[in-house]
Design goal:
The chain has 12 helices and 2 strands. It is mainly α. The radius of gyration is 35 Å and the shape is globular.
Length: about 325
């Protein structure tokens, strides 16, 4: 081997006989050290008898420059996100809870919408502690607080990694997909629970086509509630009086107006659930056209508090909170 080639013959003999001296040991060690440099691997080419030094490159790990992120008051900013979402969710949840309960009880034949709304309002004002701790209210509160919180934390995340102002609100595809996923998943769970609580018969399985149509309906509403307002508000500012904030007007108008387009998907999904598969598509579309006007108006009355009032409260509270940090 290469190390033995540098050791004198007499020293090898001494090693074998066990009589190597301290001086020879020192020489042997020095020779071996010379053959193996500390910062490289020494290899001996048997044909040429020369040592080859191979220097291994040092791997370069990717580095993240935290200086490129806006991390100032990040914990407080997330707190503002959560507080804004919970405030907006708690504000809109009572009315939406009463409306959703009334719609389901009316559809099941349990009682009319007006009777259901009166009963819910009576409970809210005479026994508020029972209403605000009931399962229906908690479910509605979770749906809208979760939706607003998803939008807020995404804005904070993007403003952090892109080094933008803390109050920046986005309107791109990431926000649309994130808020759609949160709202639709929470809403589907809420709807299944409301059906069990307020229906008069056992709910039958919902066909996949109904789920698909409801998903389109909710996607349109989410897009109009979280993406469109920031897009159309600059244009509204050009035509509205200065005393009327364009951002607030856009937050009310966009989700309400989109119901004219999303309601047919809602009605067609209900039609597939309520009618068997032998019904012709022409009959389904005729029923959708018949109910489109009043149903669109009713859905506007529900959506405006949910994403109009709630969106304005959430967005305004978050913006003021971020600017105050």
């Amino acid at each position: 081997m290469g190390a033995a080639a540098d050791v004198p013959a007499a020293s090898v003999g001494d090693i074998r006989s066990g009589g190597i001296s301290g001086t020879n040991t020192q020489d042997t060690t020095n020779n071996a050290s010379a053959s193996f440099p500390a910062k490289s691997a020494a290899m001996v080419d048997s044909s040429k008898g020369s040592a080859l030094d191979i220097k291994l490159p040092k791997p370069k790990l990717p580095s993240v420059k935290v200086d490129d992120w806006n991390t100032a008051n990040l914990g407080k900013r997330l707190g503002v996100d959560a507080l804004s979402a919970a405030t907006a969710g708690g504000l809109v949840a009572p009315l939406i809870c009463m409306i959703d309960k009334g719609i389901i009880e009316n559809a099941s034949g349990k009682r009319s919408i007006s009777a259901s709304l009166l009963a819910s309002a009576t409970t809210l004002f005479t026994r508020p502690h029972r209403f605000l701790t009931s399962k229906p209210f908690v479910l509605i509160f979770a749906v809208y607080t979760g939706t607003y919180l998803t939008a807020n934390t995404l804005d904070t995340t993007l403003s952090t990694v892109r080094k933008k102002d803390a109050a920046t609100a986005t309107s791109g595809a990431p926000k649309f997909f994130a808020t759609s996923a949160a709202n639709m998943s929470l809403s589907l769970y809420k709807d299944s629970q409301f059906t069990k609580m307020f229906g008069t018969v056992s709910a039958r399985p919902v066909p996949p086509v109904t789920y698909a149509l409801f998903a389109v309906r909710d996607s349109l509403t989410i897009f109009a509630s979280f993406n469109l307002p920031t897009v159309i508000s600059p244009r509204l500012a050009e035509v509205l009086p200065a005393a009327l904030p364009a951002a607030s007007a856009a937050q009310f108008l966009a989700p309400a107006a989109i119901q004219l387009l999303s309601t047919p998907f809602h009605l067609l999904g209900l039609n597939f659930y309520n009618r068997n598969g032998d019904t012709r598509m022409s009959e389904r579309f005729a029923k959708v056209r018949q109910d489109w006007g009043m149903s669109s108006l009713a859905r506007m009355c529900r959506i405006v508090p949910a994403f109009g009032v709630g969106g304005v409260v959430n967005g305004g509270m978050r913006r003021r909170g971020m600017e105050g940090l």
